Amino acid sequence: MKRKSLLQYQWKRNRTVFFCGFFYVPTGILAGLLRVYLPKAVLSELETAQTVAHMGMTLLVISVALLLLLLVQTRLEVSISRYGYLLLQEMRGEYAKRLLTANYEEMETQDFRSARDQAKQAIYGERMDGKNITPVNDFMKNLLSVLTNIGSVVLYTVMIARVSPILIPVLLLPPMLIFYLDGKVGVREEKKIWIR
Fold first, then answer.
1. Spatial separation of the C-alpha atoms in residues 82 and 138, rounded to whole Å
2. Bridge partners, residue 132, by sequence
3. Distance between terminal CA atoms of the chain?
4. What distance in Å separates the CA atoms of residue 187 and residue 193, rounded to the nearest whole number?
5. 19 and 142 Cβ atoms separated by less than 8 Å
6. pTM here?
């Protein structure tokens, strides 16, 4: 049985979700940037003692741009979720078809049972707090959120580096240290569980 990655499967079935993702990431980055820039614009207008009309126009332009970006981002997120749901339904159909058409000798092999169990867990998920959690359903949305966050971090890092490159290690060191220590504690706790 040939296995495909979820991205390959999605690409083969419906490429529109990649088109939506192509616009989702920059929209999310720009929306985050405008959220950060809005208070700065207000303070800048107050410090320079601009007229109320000028300040109102600046805030209106930024707010409308932010609102439009959030609307587009929400629309794209809904489309991506819908495509994820449709993909899940197609995968469930293929899973059932594969089980119904498999011959008995093939079903007895360890490879088939292993692949069947992995596919079943990915497609049907597991029950958690009364909900059925499936990794397939929100895969693209979660992947695009991660890419948006990485893009935002890169953008903010470049902006901070333009102000002072010395701030970059100062800002990056604490999260890296927390990540390292959290991994060490997690490994130690996992060893304690296995030792018992």
1. 10
2. 127
3. 38
4. 10
5. no
6. 0.66
Q: What angle do CA 35, 41, 47 make, to 5 degrees?
A: 150
Angle at 179 between CA 174 and CA 184, to 5 degrees: 125
Identity of the amino acid at 51 = T
Taking residues 99-113, report their average pLDDT. 73
Q: How far apart, in whole angstroms, are the C-alpha atoms of residue 170 and residue 41?
A: 26
Residues with Cβ within 8 Å of 95's Cβ and at least 6 positions away in sequence, in order, are 119, 120, 123
Answer whether residue 63 shows pLDDT above 50.
yes
CA distances from 24 to 21, 38, 122 (A): 5, 21, 25
Range 148-170 burial, b when 16+ CB lie within 10 A, else e: beebbeeeeeeebeeeeeeeeee
**Amino acid identity at 21:** G
Q: Residue 95 phi/psi, 5° resolution?
A: -60, -45
